[in-house]
Amino acid sequence: MEHIAIIGAGAMGCLFAGLLAEAGRRVTLLTKRPEEAEHLRREGLRLEGLGGSRRVTVAATANPQDVQEADLVLLAVKAYDTQTAVQTVAAWLKEQAVVLTLQNGLGNVETVSAFVGAERTLGGVTAHGATRLGVGHVRHAGRGETVIGEARGGLTSRVEHLADLFTAAGIETRAVEDIRPVLWGKLLVNVGINALAAVLQWRNGQLIEHPATERVLEAAVTEAVQVAQAEGLSFTAAEAVAKVKSVCKATAQNLNSMLQDLQRGRQTEVDYLNGAIVAEGEKLGVPTPINWTLTQLVKALEP
Ligand code: KPL
Predict the structure, then answer these.
(1) Distance separating alpha carbons of residues 75 and 65, to the nearest angstrom
(2) Using CA positions, which residue lies closest to atom 5 of ligand 1?
């Protein structure tokens, strides 16, 4: 994994690019906006928060052809851009290159697999908190574990190697055999927090300070657990709700990513979070009225 291409210069893409480049990795940041790539080449990245304020030099480009030499492509675009992003770079990738998605939401691993093959796809989640303050300018607000695994399952040496490489760059990472419960675990957290706090324009911690919002959070997560169970996953509502509340506490001051999207007048990932629970629930015959309502309310606030 000599050369890492990161697609998407949002908060997470810039944070990972900065940390990996600081650790001496060859990193290329790909953005679809030429003026953004130009700015990144000229000014570098500006990181602040954990690790202090500093500038980090990275290669940046808007030309998908520049991923040709990458051994690893890290997808850090919003879930609604996954297909376009992977489709754009797929033709340029060398045969041994692998693609890792650390994006929020359901369906990213499947979309990547459809274009590059499941044998070249890795999935995962990250609990780092990062906020984009401007072009290439990110506040690293919280450190958390990153978990990665093969789309096809099994613990391979390449996924273990990648976990070591990330960990050595200060991105503490664990490789697992089965990524599916991990992806669903993160989905349940996002389903409980993002839409509800986005509609109310609240910080994550406020959701568990009021009995009314606590009840809605519990109901949304319980529905999603019922869908997960119908999918064959072994979550329990009590454990999932406790986990979501512990994340509210741990990230109490965060404005979640969906709220940040709305505040910036952008589309959100709700279709891949609460909306995905509704869609899966429909397929499996599990009613999901709370997630449906949250999805519609977020859509009402989208541009
Ligand atoms: O993943 C997040 C997000 O904002 O999307 C949480 C965990 C809710 C932290 O804010």
Answers:
(1) 16
(2) 257
